[in-house]
Design a protein that fits this description.
This protein is of the alpha/beta class. InterPro entries: Biofilm_reg_signaling, EAL_dom, EAL_sf, GGDEF_dom, MHYT_dom, Nucleotide_cyclase, Rev_trsase/Diguanyl_cyclase.
């Protein structure tokens, strides 16, 4: 019997350390991608890093065995050798998953380092157990405990350094330091454990020394595992740069960079010039194309638009798709004059006809522009300014471009403030109803009233309907406001009847939003029932756009309301886009001539339009009312053309309830 320690080939020992550090650095590079990924991709990066690190531990161990000179032949149990690699990978995965939180606490670092140290040690001892030798291995427990402590201590140092830079994707000296620590944890544990081990064997049964590095099977296994390790690293990098990165930073429909690509572009490229421009682009009427022709046609239209935008910009800048029908263009070297020229070219190019699956489509764009450094020196400020300018383009008629200025910003700030307050106005009873008389100029009596909404803001006073009604329409708040107004108007009109102040119909303006659901009839019926008002004393005023939108459904709903006894009038007639061929199909009682025509009634063309509207109403057995009457000349003209019922400041301005009561008394006294 004999006992012998182990001697090493120093060059192979160095090779094992280099292999351990390389595996650790490759794994760290992979795991650094986790912070920039989401969902299953995060787990994929974590698993890849664990596989590389675990296989690196395994390869380092058996290269370390190759560095050992032993006086007997050594074989290996393949199942146990493979199990040792799986144990290493599993421990690495647990350790990395446990520590990978946004802000890992110290106890997590300690537990993670214990798991990794245990994995390194477990892999080592299972690997040693897989050796088939004609000898017995003896261990010094104290030194084996020391080897375990080395594994845990240096694992902790490596993990701690890793958490400091885990979001960095490029080269970092701290990554290298972390990899060195983890490499020391592997090799330190291995060689400390081996040095604390000795073999007891029968000297007569072993006649020649055997150098492990000549073992072809072991060399082949180590080579394959090393190849596997680098294949995963290289494949993951290729996948990241050529597949995952494109998925993360590009829009799949148009293949343009998306919001993530936009952020990266602004961080790295945009602000290199002394000046630049940001264009916020939104397509006009795109939703109607989507709704009428389907989303497939809409998607193809977006692809066509994306191509045209790229052709317009060329190599001067970059085009991004933000989502839906919104695009953004960044021109890093652009003056105000050049921005205006580019915007004009974009508008001209976008509005050219599109032919998509035998459909000839027309679409326009609205553009908002901001400039750096005038309007901001960071991405967020420039996008906000360009978005504000875009709203101005939309509000001023679309198919236009606007350059941001401070007045726009004040307008948007006020608009946002009003929207916030508008959401609370109904609950705070800040709305009031005013009434404007409808006057029969022949009999000199009030034949009706139009109810109008006013907002008494606690800080800004009376807010113009022109300012807050569009906000209410856009946000949908107009629906509950109109419900409240229906109940308020019906109750007030019934009170006038009881007090014998007036017995006339009162009209309420209807929003298109009220016709989107199926509850308008029920709400009107409820308001009439609760107030006790007869239906013919309530009139609903609709616009031409409401009448022509989903015409069949609108006609059915209006017909039900007419059968109930409620009156219907068509407001602002002549200013919309209705077809005269459909006018007779819409169940209405009254046509209202818009004040635009009355105000310009001295013009021969406007006079002709007024005359034709009155004639149309007469031929269709409809009543006719002229809005915006302010002078005796207008009254005489309207009377000569056959219109006797008028509404305007000449007869009475919109008045609150208390003033209107006195107005009625004054008119009766006359």
């Amino acid at each position: 019997m004999d006992q012998m320690g182990i001697h090493y080939n120093n060059w192979i020992v160095l090779l094992s350390f280099v292999l351990a550090v390389t595996a650790a650095y490759s794994a760290i590079n992979l795991i650094s991608q986790v912070s920039h990924s989401m969902g299953r991709i995060r787990s994929l990066w974590l698993l890849s890093g664990a596989c590389v690190l675990g296989s690196g531990i395994w390869a380092m161990h058996f290269v370390g065995i190759l560095a050992s000179r032993m006086p007997f032949e050594v074989g290996y149990h393949p199942g146990m050798a493979f199990l040792s690699m799986l144990v290493g990978m599993f421990a690495c995965y647990l350790a990395l998953r446990f520590v990978f939180t946004p802000y890992p606490k110290r106890w997590r670092l300690i537990v993670s380092s214990i798991i990794l140290g245990t994995g390194i040690s477990g892999m080592h001892y299972i690997g040693m157990f897989s050796m088939e030798i004609e000898a017995t291995i003896h261990y010094s427990l104290l030194k084996q405990a020391l080897s375990f402590m080395i594994a845990v201590l240096f694992s902790y140092m490596g993990i701690y350094l890793f958490t400091r830079f885990k979001d960095d994707r490029g080269f970092s000296k701290w990554k290298l330091c972390s990899a060195l620590c983890i490499g020391i944890a592997m090799t330190g544990m291995h060689y400390t454990s081996i040095s604390a081990s000795y073999f007891e064997y029968d000297v007569w049964n072993s006649t020649k020394p055997f150098l492990m590095q000549t073992d072809v099977i072991l060399l082949t296994g180590v080579s394959l595992v090393t190849l596997f390790m680098f294949t995963i690293s290289g494949g993951a990098v290729f996948l990241d740069r050529n597949v995952l990165e494109r998925m993360a930073y590009h829009d799949p429909l148009t293949e343009l960079p998306n919001r993530h690509g936009l952020e990266r572009y602004f961080e790295s490229d945009f602000f290199r010039g002394t000046s630049g421009a940001v264009f916020f682009i939104d397509l006009d009427r795109f939703k109607s194309i989507n709704d009428t022709l389907g989303h497939d046609i809409g998607d193809m239209l977006l692809q066509e638009v994306a191509g045209r935008l790229e052709n317009c910009i060329g190599d001067n800048g970059k085009v991004f798709r933000l989502g839906g029908d919104e695009f953004l263009i960044a021109l890093p070297h652009c003056t105000l004059e050049e921005a205006g020229e580019s915007a004009q070219g974009i508008l001209q190019e976008v509005k050219k006809p599109y032919t998509i699956e035998d459909n000839e489509l027309y679409v326009t764009a609205s553009v908002g522009i901001s400039l750096t450094p005038v309007h901001g020196t960071d991405r967020s400020a420039l996008m906000k300014a360009a978005d504000t300018a875009l709203y101005t383009s939309k509000d001023s008629g679309k198919n236009k471009f606007s350059v941001f200025d401070l007045e726009m910003n004040r307008y948007q700030v006020r608009r946002m403030s009003l929207e916030k307050d508008l959401r609370k106005a109904l609950a705070r009873s800040e709305f009031m109803v005013v009434y404007q008389p409808k006057w029969d100029s022949i009999t000199n009596v009030t034949v009706g009233l139009e109810s109008l909404l006013r907002w008494r803001h606690p800080e800004h006073g009376i807010i113009s309907p022109v300012e807050f009604i569009p906000i209410a329409e856009e946000t949908g708040l107009i629906v509950p406001i109109t419900y409240w107004m229906l109940h308020e108007v019906c109750s007030q009109n019934m009170l006038w009847h009881k007090e014998d102040v007036a017995t006339v119909a009162v009209s309420i303006n209807m929003s298109a939003r009220m016709f989107e659901g199926e509850s308008l009839y029920d709400i009107v019926e409820e308001a009439l029932t609760r107030s006790g008002l007869a239906p013919h004393f309530l009139e609903l005023e609709i616009t031409e756009s409401i009448a022509m939108n989903n015409m069949e459904e609108t006609v059915v709903l209006l017909s039900k309301l007419r059968k109930l006894g409620v009156r219907v009038s068509l407001d602002d007639f002549g200013t919309g886009f209705s077809s005269l061929g459909s006018l007779d199909e819409i169940p209405i009682n009254t046509l209202k001539i818009d004040q635009v025509f009355i105000r310009k009634s001295k013009m021969h063309s406007k006079k002709a339009i007024i005359s034709n509207i009155i004639a149309i109403a007469a031929n269709l057995n409809m009543e006719v009312i002229a809005e915006g009457v302010e002078t005796t000349e207008q009254i005489e003209l309207l009377q000569s053309l056959g219109c006797t019922v008028m509404q305007g400041y000449y007869y009475g301005k919109p008045m609150p309830v208390n003033e209107l009561g006195q107005w009625f008394l004054d008119k009766k006294a006359v």
